[in-house]
Amino acid sequence: MIQRIQSIYLAIAIISLIVAIVLLGSAAVWGAEDGLMRIFGGAMLACWALSAVMMGCAIFAYLNRRKQMKQVRWANCMIGLSYVFLAAAYYVVDDGMKNISLPSIALAIVAMLLAHLAWRNIKADEEKVRAADRIR
Q: What's the mean pLDDT when you consider all of the chain?
């Protein structure tokens, strides 16, 4: 499990999402005066938390690579959905970006890239197993 590089990618992505949640949670949700900003910030936090949980489950689903690929893909979609909420906060809320910390956004992008790298390596493992099954 740990010797597979995609597990390391996913673990680093989870850590970066947790740090992003802490950075964003302190600034956007609890520091916001506007109710809409709290809603959008909370939605972003929920997307990132759900994504981190899905990536954590994907680490332990190493015996079923297809399920693992689906979990990582959906976790990546949840991070992408959080950017939809970020864009909505930017356009709907006056001064919507003043409470958003840029390092949290950057860490979520890093997590998204690491999840994609993990997905590529899981797919490569699946192709290697299929090739070995064809040879037998």
A: 84
